[in-house]
Amino acid sequence: MSQDNIMKLECTECKRVNYNSHKNKKTLKERLTINKFCKACGKHTAHKETK
Question: One MF term in GO for this entry (predicted)?
Fold first, then answer.
């Protein structure tokens, strides 16, 4: 996996970076929002893509 395709996913409630993922930047221009489990919150929350 190349470094330019890696993105960080940050919890919208506690602002912790919990996940790393990748995406195709040619087809997806806007930032992603995915529901994932946050270990700090202890529940499923929305995680947004950070820089």
Answer: structural constituent of ribosome
